[in-house]
Amino acid sequence: MSLGEPPTVSIATLGCKVNQAESDAYAQRFTDAGFRLVPAEEPADVCVVNSCTVTNTGDHKSRQLIQRLRRANPDSLLAVTGCYAAVAPLQVERHTGADLIAGLAQKDELVELVKERLVERGVPLPRAVPVEELIRAAPRTRLNVKVQDGCNDFCTYCIVPFSRGRARSIPLEEVVRQVRRAAREGYQEVVLTGVNMTAYGRDGGTNFGALLEAVLERTAIPRVRLSSIEPFKFDTAWLPLWSSGRLCRHLHLPLQSGCDATLRRMRRRYDSTAFARLVEGIRAAVPGVAIWTDVIAGFPGETDEEFEASYRFIEGMDFAGIHVFRFSPRTGTKAASMDGRVPDRVKKARSERLLRLSEAGKRRFASRLVGSVQQVLFEQPGEGLTDNYVRVRAAGGRPNTFGRVRITGLAADGAQGELA
């Protein structure tokens, strides 16, 4: 660090949109505290890793990233936060050489903890100057706004209730403030994100529908998109809000399996009939909506018959896209010790069939747009997304602007068209 210069900080992020939103919040707080933000790949006086632990692979990737940053920045203050730091702080300390570990109880105090460690090292602290500009940990066209954290459901395969704690909501006024700020900064879209968003407000006498209504009524942001949202708490009374035209016709409803026996072992709180009924109601209320989902292939005890039942159900749901995961036992979850482990070769074959089903669904959904005119938010020159999550290429589109695009045909990963 040069004499008289503010200390630099980099923030590297692994995992979900909630982590991305939290990293953006860290970037803002460090900048307000007088630090200078630099890209994660550049040397920095303070290196922050926002880690992931959703699977054992997530742990491994987190360790690799932390160790790589330690080698590249041997004299830096290396701070680790996020879910891996929350569930395995001793493992992080033992295997990574991190100087500071901020787990579940400490992550909101990360900036203050970093400042304390710098003082211990004899590093002069920067002068805090709150910045009006919206600071991001990484540049993106849309802004992730965290509205909720934690989960009370304890699905048998999931470590999140242990890594993020009980469900809790960001105050409605704070969410509205963040969305208003994004609109002032020129963002055209925000993504409301949380670990279990349908639990929003249960700790404060409100609900997720009231939050959506407040964002639509009290902000001028052109587009509001939702990240993954649990199906068993989705209230169809919220659906009239989509008539505003500002809520994106794109819902990601994690199914995990189309077989009821498997769903019971997963401790999911619905069956395939209830899920299909919900999707039918959404499609009736929101024409053109894209329904995406998550599916786990090879959950313990999933027989060939159960997988075939699940596959037929998923095929009949006509999803616009499927995120496919091969089951990976996560240490600390009930599923990790379940009997009936599915061989890796079987999991691979099942996941490949599901991935082919996903690709067919994406092309089928995109083909329905051919001949229509769609509003596309361009993320980079000539490429962007419709509100129902079809990637469109159209020459002349400028980043962070909307364009009306006539869809003329399909592309490898979406559709192509021309500005109308």
Whole-number count of domains: 3
| Amount of beta strand | 15-25%
Highest-level CATH class of the largest domain: Alpha Beta
- Tell me about the largest β-sheet: 5 strands, parallel
First and last CA, distance: 52 Å
Helix and strand content put the structural class at alpha/beta
Q: What is the CATH topology descriptor of the largest domain?
A: pyruvate-formate lyase- activating enzyme
What is the CATH superfamily of the largest domain? tm_1862 like domain
- Count the E strands: 17
User: What form results from the Cα inertia axes?
Assistant: globular
On the 0 to 100 scale, the average pLDDT is 95
Oligomer: single chain
The stretches of 5 or more residues where confidence is low (pLDDT under 50) are none
Question: Helicity, in percent?
Answer: 25-40%
N-to-C SSE series?
EHEEHEHHEHEHEHEHEEHHEHEHEEEEE
Total of DSSP H or I helical runs spanning 4+ residues:
12
The strand line-up of the biggest sheet is 2-1-3-4-5
CATH architecture of the largest domain: Alpha-Beta Horseshoe
Q: Could you tell me the radius of gyration in angstroms?
A: 22 Å
Could you write a compact summary of the structure shown?
By secondary structure, the chain is an alpha/beta fold. The chain is 35% helix and 21% strand.
Question: Could you give the topology of this structure?
Answer:
Elements: E1 8-13, H1 17-32, E2 36-37, E3 46-51, H2 56-72, E4 77-82, H3 83-87, H4 89-96, E5 100-101, H5 110-120, E6 143-149, H6 160-164, E7 168-169, H7 172-184, E8 189-194, H8 208-218, E9 223-226, E10 250-252, H9 260-266, H10 272-285, E11 290-297, H11 304-317, E12 321-326, H12 344-367, E13 373-380, E14 383-386, E15 391-393, E16 402-411, E17 414-419
Helix pairs in contact: 7-8
